[in-house]
Amino acid sequence: MSWKTLTLLAILAAGLGGFLVLDSYYLTPKREKTTSTQGRLWTIEPKDVETVTIRRRDDTVKVKRAGDSWEMLEPVKTRGNSGVINEVVTGLATARVDREIDANPSKPADFGLEPPAAQVTLEVKGQAAPLTLTVGGKNPTGVWVYAREGSKPAVVAIGETVSRDVTRPVAEFRDRALLAFDRRNVTAVDLDLDRSKMTLEAEDGGKWRIATPGPYRGDADMITEMLDKLGSATVKEFLGPAKSSAAFGLDKPSRVTLWLGKGKDRTSKTLLLGKVDAEKKGVYVQREGEQEVLLAPSETWDKLPKTVAAVRDKVVFAYAYDKVGRVEISSAAGTVTLQRDGINWNITAPEGLKADTGAVNGLLWKIRDLRASGFLDESPAGVARYLSRPDVTVKLWEEGAAEPKTLLLGLSKTVKVGAPTGVAAAGGQGPVFMVAATDVGEFSKTATDLRDKSVVASFEMNDVKRVRVTAGGKVMLLERRGESEWRVLEPSKGPAKEIKVTGLLLTLRGLRWKEIVAADGADAARFGLDKPEVEVVLLKADGAEAAGLVIGRTDERLSYVRSKASPAIYGVDAKAVEDIRKAPSDIPG
């Protein structure tokens, strides 16, 4: 191949490459843009529209772009509803002409254009002259609307959605957020509600304190909910300037002031609250500095704490639940001491017993979740006054602490005449709280209440290879194959219902006694255990017993049972062993 041929091919390749670049980066986008704007009233983009003015027969709406949002300039100066305005602007900027109806009508009124439904003016970035559109009435089918563009005499048909957008009520163009703020920036709140004044201050870690009066710990959950409700509240009605503030209860309003930011950047927003209108399910409010009266949802008022007690932290006893290693409970029934053993608990006094870990953890959760219904005294002296002889004393030792944290609980008839009231406090310090009387009884636990009441020795369900159930002199033998398949081996081979076998094992593992009727197992015949009604034995793969249960007679309340691992005879809820009795008939099949 000659050098001339190579040169020619190189020139052609370069030309082709240049054309592809030109087509990809210029011609194709230009064609796409031409296609997208074909038939449009104007060849503008919504993002370039800076101001929209809509003059109607009864009012004028004017909005102006302000960064990523919109500001309303008429009929009132306020925040615009960006979602609605962006929708309207997009509809106007991309409106398409369906066809020309009349090039020069002699009677524009026939098309609803004199007077028009709306006169629209758009100010567009980069264009000296504004764009205008006169919107008239709808065509007979209601699908199109008649319009004129600029000073052109021709009447054209455009989509009905343009008419819908430009005739929206003024309220739809307004931002309905009652009070626009970012909850994360709120550093303090001043409340003046029904002449009850308080100041709340944010602290690190999402905590709050009541600075005045006080200081007291604030209820962080309640304050957060209050701010969330305030931040999400929307205006129900825009009522315009008030001729009489008293008519709306705004002559002597309640006030909520939010302080945003810190230092020199600190700003505030205040909401004035007047009367509650039960019929409209709202409350009349004003933003400070504005004359307009607004109707806000009634919960805007309902969620505001009206008293210091309402917004105070109602946690009675604060402690680190996961750090507790030892518990001591003293009451009229005696003293019980518990010690953590890994994830389990043991009773160490009055005697060494395995504890019901679920019951102990439940008790600790109740202590953690104990909440005050009122406040009686703030000082340590109040503890001596109300709890000099507590009904229940709970001591918790946290890891690494030499001394326990102490919770005192008692019943008092001096707080409410004729009705015992629960009283609680941390030992040696205030405040003294009112709690439910039932709370006091729930913390008065004995060793019997907290001991492990399991009847059957603990076992892992995956360790069980075979199950033998003997009832009425007949034996049913089950065997597990694989992870979950069970088969009946005796009295005849066949399938077994997996869910029923699993239910049997769970019942055995969860069985709890209500009474110890014979700790030494004496007089077994009296309880029908010399000739048991049902006997269940769980076997491991090597043939060793994993657990077992014998069921004797049943009276009105209890069934009497004995574990294969202990001589003790227990009374259990008769309903708790019904599934075990039914196992021989329920499991096969």
Polypeptide structure, described:
With about 600 residues, the protein is an alpha+beta fold. About 20% of the residues lie in helices and about 35% in strands. The strands form four sheets. Strands 4-3-2-1-6-7-8-9-5 form a nine-stranded antiparallel sheet. A nine-stranded antiparallel sheet has the order 13-12-11-10-15-16-17-18-14. A hairpin with a 3-residue loop joins β34 and β35 (about 560-565).
Largest sheet: 9 strands, antiparallel
Unreliable stretches covering 5 or more consecutive residues: 27-36
| Main β-sheet, spatial strand arrangement | 4-3-2-1-6-7-8-9-5
Helix segment tally? 13
Radius of gyration: 40 Å
Strand tally: 36
What level of helicity do the residues show? 10-25%
Strand content: 35-45%
Distance between the termini: 87 Å
Mean pLDDT: 91
Overall morphology: extended
Structural class: alpha+beta
